[in-house]
Amino acid sequence: QVQLVESGGGLVQAGGSLRLSCAASGRTFSRYVMGWFRQAPGKEREFVAAMNWSGGSAAYADSVKGRFTISRDNAKNTVYLQMNSLKPEDTAVYYCAAAARFFPTYEYDYWGQGTQVTVSS
């Protein structure tokens, strides 16, 4: 069982930056693929980024490539999402997720409660 708690969301102007954090409970954090997803009002949840257990491989949605960076610190049981050059269309609730599967995967086993990111124009 893994519990995930996101933080770092907020209100930022277009062009600005935010860093989201996701703290995970449990001693087996390093075994999980970690991902970030987002859901905007009236839209389905969509994939944003993911990283394998070691941090050596990452995947990104085309919409965030070159602007967002996922990273993880297994010693701190934490995964991060650095978001730069934010756009109003990045406004959404951002969710952290963990998967006990091979990377890459679209199936995730555990989810956080989400953190709101709002980008003003």
Give a description of the structure.
The protein has 121 residues and is mainly β. 0% of the residues lie in helices and 49% in strands. The chain contains no helices and 11 strands. The chain has strands spanning 4-7, 10-13, 18-24, 33-39, 46-51, 58-60, 68-73, 78-83, 92-99, 110-111, 115-120. A hairpin with a 6-residue loop joins strand 4 and strand 5. It is globular and about 40 Å long. The model has no long low-confidence stretch (mean pLDDT 95).
Mean pLDDT, as a whole number? 95
* Quaternary structure classification: single chain
How would you sum up the global shape?
globular
Q: What is the end-to-end distance?
A: 40 Å
**How many helical elements?**
0
Radius of gyration: 13 Å
Range of helix content: under 10%
Category by helix and strand content:
mainly beta
Largest sheet, in brief, is: 7 strands, mixed
Low-pLDDT runs of 5+ residues are none
